[in-house]
Write a structure and sequence with these properties.
The chain is α/β, with parallel strands linked by helices. The chain folds into 3 domains: about 130 residues, Trna Endonuclease, Chain: A, domain 1 (3-Layer(aba) Sandwich); about 150 residues, no CATH class; about 220 residues, no CATH class. About 45% of the residues lie in helices and about 15% in strands. Strands 7-11-10-12-9-8 form a 6-stranded mixed β-sheet. It starts with a helix and ends with a helix.
Length: about 525
């Protein structure tokens, strides 16, 4: 989950009806009701009482009527806002499953395990389960027994590395799902990534599986799975039979396939790399570690060779006298330099230059759908990026002036405040000229003056923002900043009010005109 998603899910407060977080997975169509219990005593355990209470909590969310009742009764504004924001009632009514997730740093005792066996809609992450996620590669995991891969519709590439034999082939997805240990995870005991939960990768896999027309193309864009076995016991044109096997890379794929088993057709095949280790545990560990030590390719990596990003990298280095590294690809070595990731720069430009702070929670779009809009304009230069970045850092330092600290340090707030500051500056032609003169400001040594100016304006607007977010009507609900900051209409409305308030302060001689403040910087060379 992205940081903002986990923040949005949290509803923990007084009167939370036993719920600490609500997360709705629209791909899997599952509502996760999450409760966490901590104990301070070492080696603590919990029994069936806690599980029974949590089961009662879940019953409050298993129908639209019950959810509506919770909404009307609770005094917890976070819970109310989450129910509204996620459209929880309508989604449960439409058929979304409700799954409980119980998390604790204590161990479940036998009584707790016994009742959990009768309650399939509760998933447990106790001390033992959490610890098991940190896999010890010295443990020889996997499945003891035989299994055969169906190769009747695939050529097989054979490779002998001296100490190990390898086979590369396409296997039907339905054949692979017959391997033991997928559901309980025992097949993946050596896999250092495990299934990784409902990550973006898993969601993408499951969405691809649902599109039957894409099944024939699956091997074209799917990396496949790596399987180790102690022995390849027999081979024919139809099948390869193995003894004692484990999947060391592919847990995400197989768990996603299992979850969407009913959607799988005979056309869906998976690339399999099968390696016979002959019981060599050292070789097995090296394969496991290396096959899981490859970072996923992100959209920003695919854009790293784009001429725009290469140009901006050179320009940022030049304007900063080689002190700032504009990082365009994960894993770059920039020792001794201040690093500005192009993804972060894109979010800043999205809020301040394109005036869309409400879209800044969609970070994945910056280097993908929005790349040309953000970076492809002629006026986007290394100097512009450097200048806006320094301005943004100054805005962040003003967040402490916001009284509601939860709102102040919510991830989208800094982008909104930066947008409001720039909106104010753009009310005067000299302000616009200043924003378009970042190269002149930096090369003339005016960077500190620019940063100080932005800081003063940001703090002024932050103080005024406090008044805007206070509920003036006693009957009004609490301010749902998690929802409002993603709303274009709210952002535009509140920004306009902040600009209007600053204009009033000018008339009352409580603030200086924007033209006066920006005059010198607008013509700096």
């Amino acid at each position: 989950m992205e940081e903002i998603d986990s923040d949005d899910a949290c509803v923990d407060a007084k009167h939370d009806k036993g719920v600490d977080a609500i997360y709705v997975d629209d791909v899997s169509e599952i509502v996760y009701i999450i409760q966490a219990k901590t104990k301070t005593k070492d080696n603590a355990e919990f029994g069936d009482t806690e599980i029974k209470e949590f089961y009662g909590t879940l019953q409050q969310f298993d129908s639209k009527d019950k959810i509506d009742e919770v909404f009307s009764e609770t005094k917890n504004d976070k819970l109310k806002q989450a129910i509204t924001r996620t459209r929880l009632a309508s989604k449960v009514e439409s058929g979304y499953d409700v799954l409980g997730v119980f998390i604790s740093n204590a161990r479940a005792n036998d009584d707790a395990k016994a009742i959990l066996a009768k309650l399939p809609n509760i998933e447990l992450f106790d001390a033992e389960a959490i610890a098991n996620d940190y896999v010890d590669l010295d443990v020889d995991g996997g499945i003891k027994g035989s299994y055969y891969f169906d190769t009747s519709d695939s050529d097989v590439i054979e490779y002998d590395a001296g100490g190990a034999a390898a086979r590369l082939f396409l296997a039907p997805a339905l054949n692979l799902l017959k391997m033991e240990g997928i559901a309980d995870g025992s097949l993946f005991e050596q896999n250092v990534r495990l299934a990784l939960g409902n990550t973006k990768v898993n969601k993408g896999l499951r969405q691809s599986i649902k599109e039957k027309g894409e099944h024939k193309n699956f091997p074209l864009y799917h990396n496949g799975i790596n399987v180790l076995c102690r022995e390849i016991s027999s081979e024919s044109e139809e099948r390869i039979e193995v003894q004692d096997y484990v999947v060391v890379n592919g847990a995400q794929s197989l768990t996603s396939l299992l979850a969407e088993k009913s959607k799988i057709t005979d056309d869906l095949k998976i690339l399999v790399k099968l390696i016979e280790t002959k019981g060599d545990s050292a070789l097995s560990q090296r394969i496991t570690t290396n096959s899981n030590n490859q970072n996923a390719i992100k959209a920003r990596d695919l854009k790293s060779n784009h001429n725009i990003q290469q140009r901006l990298k050179e320009e940022v280095s030049a304007i900063s006298n080689n002190n700032v590294a504009y990082e365009i690809k994960q894993g770059e070595t920039n020792k001794g330099k201040i690093v500005l990731k192009n993804e972060s720069a894109g979010l800043i430009l999205l809020a301040m230059d394109l005036a869309q702070p409400w879209s800044c929670h969609q970070k994945y779009k910056v280097m993908d759908d929005l790349h040309s809009d953000i970076f492809g304009r002629p006026d986007v230069t290394g100097a512009r990026i450097m200048g806006y970045w320094k301005c943004f850092e100054s805005v962040e330092s003003a967040l402490d002036a916001i009284e509601d600290k939860n709102f102040a340090y919510y991830n989208l707030t800094k982008y909104f405040l930066a947008y409001a500051v720039v909106s104010l500056i753009r009310t005067d032609p000299k302000g616009v000229a200043m924003l378009n003169n970042m190269k002149g400001i930096i090369t003339s040594g005016g960077e500190k003056e620019l940063v100080d100016l932005i800081g003063v304006l940001a703090k002024s607007l932050a103080f005024d923002l406090n008044a805007e977010i206070v509920d003036k009507d006693e009957g009004a609900g609490a301010f749902d900043y998690k929802n409002e900051l993603k709303s274009p209409s709210w952002c535009k409305k509140i920004s306009a009010r902040l600009v209007a308030q600053y204009s009033k302060d000018i008339l009352r001689s409580k603030a200086d005109p924007i033209g006066t403040l920006c005059s010198e910087l607008s013509v700096a060379k």
